[in-house]
Structure formats: structure tokens, C-alpha cells
Design brief:
The protein is an alpha/beta fold and 342 residues long. It has twelve helices and 14 strands. Helices cover 34% and strands 21% of the residues. A ten-stranded mixed beta sheet has the order 3-4-5-6-9-10-11-12-13-14, with helices on one face. The protein is elongated. Bound molecules: iron/sulfur cluster (SF4).
């Protein structure tokens, strides 16, 4: 009878120790496997030179390290952004985007194949929901992107396809792999989970004292506009969301980032700029204003004049604001453009 080999990718250190125990090997071998896979990016047991010949052969028979398949990688003309399109074992396609921001090397990961939330300005929302990604598929994106770019990311943002707070059971186990010194060695302060406002997920992060940063994709300053742009706001209304974020910030003492995608005629009014700082009063917060990237969807970014006036109004308040243009628009790699297509 043929034994089914176990995919070791995405397993945490304790899980690897347990696995090697199950094949009669001492736990420290699990820690060696951890270091080879995540610290050195090695995916062939035969290349793990300190494991011993017999153990390597035993692993060949009982285990495997299987990554998603890289379909294409597209580079922006200036070389600053790379989009990796990958296919999973069951045929679903997902994307990860690497942004070279000089001091920072940021990798944007997907947490789901597609997305169920249907934000009306987002290309991922328009393709619908496939399924949750598993830890190996999340870590696999990281390893593939690293091999395409040839370096290690300094920052991870879960802002690719999907809503990470609806897949915390699979996302959270990847964090200790990313932060371990003998893993990817990325500081927990440089890992961000971005949510459209899933209140139970925010509460869980606070309750479990999850060490990473939280970003809220806000995109509106009143409930009606938010519901129009982000239908999930019907279930988790703006006032309740802000209360939950305040409680999160109070418990964790982390500053929260609010992402605000500026969309012409929707959320770029004077009253939005005036209301935004008031809404966030009492929350240690930073606002990231992002210009909408055009897709096939019927929304446009505001004019330059409008953006600069919006900025002027916002900057009158004592709140940390940054304006950024999303990168990678020409390869459909920018915020809201990921649709799992080449
Ligand atoms: S913005 Fe995020 S949560 Fe909303 S549809 Fe797109 S991927 Fe899903």
C-alpha cells in the first residue's frame, strides 16, 4: 500500500517536532527542518545536509514540501513592483505582490482565493469567493515571491486577495513562522493584517494578544456610503466597528492604521475630510490615504486638485496622515486590482 506523504510546508516548529516524533525521530530534527525550509528556503530534503542520509531518505518516503505553482511573474517597468500569479493544487489562482520601497521590501499576501465580501470598488470582490487558503499556501506565496525577487521581505501585509480576519485559523499559525529568528525573521511590528471591519476577528486578535499590526480598510466616513462601497458594513456598522477598534487599541496598546481609498464623487467630499479625524478621536491612529486604481469597475480616482484639497483639510488636524499612490497599477498589482488573472 502506498503511504500518503505529508506536506510539511506551513507547519510550525511544534508541529514539525511532533511530525518527526511520529516517524520515530528526535524533536530537534523538527527544528532543523524548520530552519532549512523557512530560514534558508530549501525545499528538497536531499539539500538539508545536516540531517543525515538515512533521515533524508526517510523524509523522502514520508513527507514532501509542496509549494503552489508559479504561473507568471510580472514586473512593473521601473522594477519596483512584481506580481506573482500562482496556482494551487485544486486549480484556484491567487496573487502576491512585492513592492521595493527602498528602505522597505513589502510583500502583500493573499489570505483567500477570491473574496466573499464584494466591496464594489475591488476587482477581487467581483470574482467571488473560492476558499480559504491554508498555512502552506500562505507561506508558499512568501517562498515563491522570495525566489522570484531574490531577497527577503522586511514587511508583510495581508492586503492581497481575501479578508484575513475571516480566515484567522489559517493565517495566525503562519505568524510565528514569519517572525521566528530561524524562520523568516520578520519583526511582528512589520506584519499587518488588513480588514474590512470584521468585528469578531478584531476582538479575537485582542483577546489572543496577537502580536502584529492591524489596519482597517475604512473608505467612508458615514454608514450609508460605507454600505454602498463595502456591503459588509451592513453586518458590522461603522459605529460598532469604531467601538471595537477603540477597545482593541486600548487592550493591545497598538496604533491602528486606517486605510482610506479615495474615490471620485463617493468619499472625497469636504465633509469626509472634516469628519474623518473626528471619527477616529480617541483611537491611536494613523490614516493612509490611497488613490483608487482604475479597474473595469465604474469608479475613478479624484482629480489632483481634489486630492490636494482633501489633504489640506485633513492636515489641519493633529492626526498622522500619509498619502500614497498605489504601486503596480500598470500590471494590475495595485490595491483593489487583484483578480487572479494574468
Ligand atoms: S477590498 Fe478586501 S475584503 Fe473587500 S472585496 Fe476586496 S479583497 Fe475582499
Amino acid at each position: 500500500m502506498k503511504t500518503i506523504s505529508r506536506n510539511l510546508l506551513g507547519l510550525t516548529k511544534p508541529q514539525l517536532e511532533k511530525f518527526v516524533g511520529s516517524i520515530g525521530v528526535k524533536p530537534y530534527r523538527g527544528r532543523q527542518l524548520f530552519r532549512w525550509m523557512y530560514g534558508h528556503g530549501v525545499t528538497k530534503f536531499q539539500d538539508m545536509t545536516d540531517l543525515g542520509k538515512d533521515l533524508r531518505s526517510q523524509l523522502e518516503r514520508t513527507a514532501r514540501i509542496t509549494l503552489p505553482t508559479l504561473v507568471t511573474s510580472q514586473w512593473a517597468e521601473d522594477g519596483s513592483t512584481v506580481k506573482c500569479l500562482m496556482e494551487l493544487q485544486d486549480g484556484h489562482r491567487i496573487e502576491a505582490v512585492w513592492m521595493d520601497e527602498e528602505v522597505r521590501q513589502t510583500l502583500c499576501l493573499s489570505s483567500q482565493a477570491g473574496c466573499a465580501l464584494g466591496c464594489t470598488f475591488c476587482a477581487t470582490g467581483s470574482v467571488g469567493f473560492g476558499r480559504n487558503l491554508t498555512p502552506d499556501e500562505i507561506i508558499g506565496q512568501l517562498m515563491i515571491a522570495e525566489s522570484v525577487v531574490g531577497r527577503r521581505p522586511t514587511n508583510i501585509v495581508f492586503m492581497g486577495m481575501g479578508e484575513p480576519l475571516l480566515n484567522l485559523d489559517n493565517v495566525l499559525p503562519t505568524l510565528p513562522i514569519m517572525t521566528a529568528g530561524d524562520g523568516f525573521a520578520i519583526s511582528h511590528r512589520k506584519i499587518t493584517l488588513s480588514t474590512c471591519g470584521i468585528i469578531p476577528g478584531i476582538q479575537r486578535l485582542a483577546k489572543e494578544n496577537v502580536k502584529c499590526k492591524l489596519a482597517i480598510s475604512l473608505n467612508a466616513t458615514d454608514q450609508d456610503t460605507r454600505v454602498r462601497l463595502m456591503p459588509i458594513a451592513k453586518k458590522y456598522p461603522l459605529d460598532d466597528l469604531l467601538r471595537a477598534v477603540k477597545a482593541y487599541a486600548h487592550t493591545t496598546r497598538y496604533r491602528v492604521t486606517f486605510e482610506y481609498v479615495l474615490i471620485a464623487g463617493e468619499n472625497d467630499r469636504d465633509e469626509d475630510a472634516l469628519r474623518l479625524p473626528k471619527l477616529l478621536k480617541g483611537i491611536p491612529a494613523k490614516i493612509n490615504i490611497i488613490l483608487l486604481n482604475p479597474t473595469d469597475l465604474p469608479y475613478q480616482p479624484p482629480s489632483e486638485d481634489r486630492v490636494s484639497y482633501f489633504e489640506t483639510l485633513l492636515r489641519r488636524h493633529k492626526i498622522h496622515v500619509s498619502f500614497r499612490k498605489s504601486r503596480g497599477a500598470e500590471i494590475s498589482a495595485a490595491c483593489g486590482q487583484l483578480a487572479g488573472k494574468t
